[in-house]
Amino acid sequence: MLLALPIIIPLLTACVCLLLGHRARLQRALAVLGACGLLVAATTLFVRVWMDGVQILHVGGWQAPFGITLVADVLAVLMVLVTALMHLAVTVYSLANVNARRQRYGYFAFLNVMLMGICGAFLTGDLFNLYVWFEVMLIGSFVLLVLGGGRAQMEAGIKYATLSLLSSALFLAGVGVIYGITHTLSMAHLSQRLALVAETDPWLVVAASVLLLLSFGLKAAVFPLYFWLPASYHTPAPAVSAIFAGLLTKVGVYALIRVFTVVFPASDYTLNLLLIIAGLTMLFGVLGAVSQSQIRRILSFHIISQIGYMVMGLALLVSPGPATQRLGVAAAVFYIAHHIVVKTNLFLIGGTVRALTGTERLVQLGGLLNQVPWLAILFLIPALSLAGLPPLSGFWAKLAIIKAGFEAQQYTLTAVALFAGLLTLVSMLKIWNEAFWKPAPEGETASENSGRRKPPPRRLALLVAPSVALAVLTLAIGLYPQALLSVSQRAARELLNRRGYVQAVLVPPEPSEQPELGDDRS
Amino acid sequence: MFVVMALLVGALYAAAFYLLLARSTVKLIFGLLLLGHAANLLIFSAGGLVRANPAIVPSGVEAPLPGYADPIPQALILTAIVISFAVLAFAAVLVKRAYVESGTDDSEEMRTTEQ
Question: Is the ipTM here above 0.90?
Fold first, then answer.
């Protein structure tokens, strides 16, 4: 039951928010309550999994290969926990950042629908169910993206929706082909059966896996499938951008990690493909960022380049040594957790800059270091963490990835990773220089004084509190990385121990019936 | 039969991608629609095309009689159809709103978010 709570709580919150109609004040209270509830449930679940190992819930009482199973291993609960944290931060931020009209027209309801989809995608152990959660997540994100209207948001919506639906259709086709090969959809069962099929017909399995690679790659915005992201993420309200930037692409990365560790048998073809994709994603993402001049667009391109690091961690499975493989996957998991916290925070701070000055174009910004010095410090923590400076969380994430890269003897790719890190620093310093360091541009100050009024202190507190909390979290991970590192290592160990996953899911209370279970369908 | 289905699925995919590449956003919706149909038929064919009975358990028996068709692909397709219906309804409204906001249905002119 505990396992279903991260899905049920957002669902209930969304339903009640819709029922409340246009009463924005009640919706706000409920949204914060729901986010707190999700955080409590996620923490409890995390502790339970950490203490007692993988938790299983057979939905509706149907045994594993037949029914849909929810599987909470360390990776899944870590993702749910980070998601719940971001949800709470963004919900609090939305109170001050999303205007009352958007709130009345279902902002919180669809935020929770999206969250339900994300948590479901993390927890499910069934391939088709994963597709369904993706769709739930997508429909929530479509509405959030276009809520409030305006030309830019509609155009972004069309691009985002088309590419998302294309990705879903590819996923669906992949599921169909995989079902045709194996006659099962449970990930644990697929893990067994695909390994059997791969012995006789390896390319059939590779073909099916490439369909999923394309679909998840499109979701995760890897090279060359990333162009929709910088065209859409900067258009909605900053709170929406922040939760998108933090979570949505990472769901794609999570799905990649899940299927290429647990479900598909290792194949050099796909892993080498992933290696190349990882390098190009890092490079092109960061090059895009260097050329931009608007805060949220720079940050959007950074998402892409950071995705490259995570995919690199996964692609290092190509190395033969199990210790290196574990290190690579652990580094990817660490990177995802760190990245979600840092990226969400950067978008939130970008939104705060916009709330204070009315613009996010770097040309029009300036002098913020003198006007609001605390915001400058607040920006520096996640910005330098993203670039990978010690002692912040990004340093350890990059260090782990690069160590794994050297141990796997992928020297070119590791060099690309280091170079991309340098360029990340350059473009972060660009925001620093332009928005905070340089003197405020002439003429802007006059219009600022007359046209803009500063947000009242209470509203400002709501904008800043989530950023402070996330910055403290970044610092905490940076100063004491061992906690997150040991979680990632354990997640990697579980992911690479297929037999353990299969046994945890498939072996029912009466193991004697096991051999018959799978054969009824075929 | 299998060859016919394979050709049909291929033709649907071809048509879908052709429409997706068109500049008009209205054609985009039709492209997405055909893409969904193609994927559904693919699941249907991949699940196995057999002449068999529906998987319904007659009264008084514990399991369906032997020689029944696999009901899972049908269930998957049913789910996918419902989802794609909802999503396409949203897409149709979105395209309409985008037309109202920007006064064009030409995706080449929808570049305000890319500068």
Answer: yes
